[in-house]
Amino acid sequence: MYFYIVDDEKAVRSMLAQIIEDEDLGEVIGEAEDGLSLEQQMLILKNIDILFIDLLMPIQDGIKTIRQIKPSFKGKIIMVSQVESKELIAEAYSLGVEYYIIKPINRIEVLTVVRKVIERIRLEKSIKNIQESLNTVLKLDSNSSVQEKYRNEKHLNTFNHFQNSIHFLLSELGIASESGSKDLMDMLDYLYKYEQDNTLEQGFPSLKEIFMNLAQKKLGDSAEDTELKRFIEASKQRIRRAIYQSLDHLASLGLTDFLNPKFENYASRFFDFTTVRRKMTELNNEPTLPARIDTKKFIQVLYFEAKRIHLELR
């Protein structure tokens, strides 16, 4: 893997480069101390797999830089910053940042995050290769009956396999037995069928739309507004309790063993690092701000992770 590091602190750049080299994660192709310098390196950036970039820099900050390079940069972005502003972190994620690392740099956290990003890059490449190979095979035989048979067989098995992936993932997150797990299953089933008829290029349907569709399906078209609202509110509460239980479960694993595979695999994907850290502090009976969850993000990640597992197990 090829890396590029942008940070106005030389010590941070050196530390990240040292971690990458010591752990044989790849090669650091270049460094810059501000975003403006990065824009002048677009030819190099085209070959970069992972870009580390600081949020706050004196000449041009990370957010503005990402906006300007994003149309042509196809690699993954990891943002590093000592800023814990919820709004800035949310903006970074909305621009396509994979992970957000809070300074001071923690070696174990950097290793965990980079390995997850490398895993995702390799998975995306594998899926792309499979799709290209499949398209080639289908083009070799223009007989429509062969293609139709393939589509029918695929449709017959795919949905059941997807549900098995959801069950597995809920178990990994420690919430398979929670009452809200059934609501989460229903939501992911809805999203799966939604994606068959639409695309997610324009984004996910709103939570309000999902909850309303599930309520109408459960209660019927003749249900009154008060019944629908009561059903939706109860479902929301069950889901929030399940998400908090998942956070509690993962944070407990991390307290026991920071290198626990489940903690490594899921904590930073489903929750912001700040949220996980606050929950771990809370479990240690130390004073901290309450951990806040993002229901929409959790459901979106749950859906994509279930799809990823489904593809791996097929």
Automatic annotation (TrEMBL):
Keyword Transmembrane helix among UniProt keywords: no
Organism: Bacillus paranthracis
Positions carrying 4-aspartylphosphate: 54
Keywords for this protein: Phosphoprotein
SMART domains: REC
Source organism superkingdom: Bacteria
Transmembrane annotation, as ranges: none
Xref: InterPro entries: CheY-like_superfamily, Sig_transdc_resp-reg_receiver, ST_Response_Regulator, YcbB
Pfam families: Response_reg, YcbB
Protein's name in the database: Response regulator
Occurrences of domain Response regulatory (ranges): 2-118
GO biological process: phosphorelay signal transduction system
